[in-house]
Amino acid sequence: MKKHFVLNLIFLVLIFQSLSAQKTPKNVIFLIGDGMGIAQVYAAIVANNNKLNLERCTHAGFSKTYSSNNFTTDSGAGGTALACGVKTKNGMIGMNSDSVAVESILELAAHNKLSTGIVVACAVTHATPASYIAHQINRNMYDEIAADYLKTDIDVFIGGGRKYFEDRNDGKNLTNELKNKNYQVVYNINDVKAIKTGKLVGLLYEDQNPKMPERGTMLPDATMAAIDILDNNSKGFFLMVEGSQIDWACHDNNIKEEIKEMLDFDETIGLALNYAEKTGNTLVIVTADHETGGLTILNGKFGSDDMSASFSTKNHSGVPVPVFAYGPGAENFTGFMENISFKGKLEKLLKLKK
Ligand code: MG
Ligand code: ZN
C-alpha cells in the first residue's frame, strides 16, 4: 500500500515536470531598448544603487546585430531583423535586401487572431515601431509608414507622430480612416488610460515624444494601458514596447540622459515582469536593435549618476547586444543568437500558422 503511494507520487511528479517543461506562452511582451548595450544597462544599474528590474529576468544571451550590407546596423535594418526575421540593408523597413516585403511577427500574430500592440517613446512612424507594421524602402517615409498602420489589424498603438496621420503631404486625414475602422483615437495619456476595451490609437505628440523627465510616466502608463486592452483576448497577445531614446542620448554621448531614459525603460520592464509573474503565461523579452555610442564605464559609485563614462563614437557600434528573458519559453533565448532568430522562435512558441 505504502509502496504504491510512493510510486504514484513519483509518477505524478514526473508528469508535472514534463508538463511544465513543455509550457508555452500565451502572450509575448517584446521590449526593445534602442541603442541599449550592456554598458547602457550597467550605467543604470550603478546609478540606481545596484538594482534594475530587468535583473529579475531568469535567462540571458547575446544578439548579433550586423545588417545585410553593413557591419553596423541602423534601427531600420535592426528593427526589421527583430520583427521580420531577415537581414536587410540599412534604412529599410519590413523588407528583405531585395526590397520584398516580409511579414512581421506582429502581423503574423494578428493573422492568427491574437491581439497586437505597439507602445513607443517616439513617433509611431519611427524606424523601430515601423519595422513591425510597415513595408517601405526608406525609414524616412513617415507619411507612407503612417498609412501602413491602416493596412493591418493592430489593436493598440501609442506614441508620438500625430502629424504623419493628420497633417500629411497628400492632404488626407488618416484619423478619419482610423475611426472608420473602429479605432478610438485619443491625444493624451489620461484618455489612453481611461479606455479599457476595443481598438485604441494614442497619438500623444505632434512629432517625437519629449525626452525624460519631460515625458513623465508616458511609457510605463501606456504599456499598462495597452496590456489592459490586449489581454481581453483569450487567444493571447503580442506587444512590442520600445525605450526609443536610449539611442538618442547615446548619439549625444550624454550619460546622464542615457541613465534617465534607461530607468524609464526599466520601470516599464518592471511592469511587464509583474504582469508575467501574476499571469504565469506571458513571455517577456528585453533586447536591443544595436549598441549606440561605443560606451564603456570606467569608474563610478553605486547610487550616483556621476560616473566616468567614455563613448567611442557618436554613432552606432557593431558589438552584440544583451538579450534578457522571463516566463514560459525563456530558455530559448540564451547564448549567442542572430537578431533574425527571434521571429522564428516566437512563431513556434506562440504556435502561429503562416
Ligand atoms: Mg528606435
Ligand atoms: Zn541611433
What this model shows, in words?
The longest helix has 25 residues, at 255-279. This protein has one domain (32-349): 3-Layer(aba) Sandwich (Alkaline Phosphatase, subunit A). The chain has 354 residues and is an alpha/beta fold. The radius of gyration is 20 Å and the shape is globular. Helix 2 (38-47) crosses helix 12 (255-279). The relative contact order is 0.22. It is built from 13 helices and 14 strands. The strands form 3 sheets. A 10-stranded mixed sheet has the order 5-6-4-3-7-1-8-13-2-14, with helices on both faces. The structure holds magnesium ion and zinc ion (ZN).
Descriptive tags:
globular, single chain, about 350 residues, binds zinc ion, 14 strands, 13 helices, two-stranded antiparallel sheet, about 20% strand, binds magnesium ion, alpha/beta, Alkaline Phosphatase, subunit A, ten-stranded mixed β-sheet
Binned, the helix content reads 25-40%
CA-based gyration radius? 20 Å
CATH topology: Alkaline Phosphatase, subunit A
Class computed from helices, strands and strand pairing: alpha/beta
Q: For the largest sheet, list the strands in their spatial order.
A: 5-6-4-3-7-1-8-13-2-14
How many structural domains can be distinguished in the coordinates?
A: 1
Secondary structure: number of strands:
14
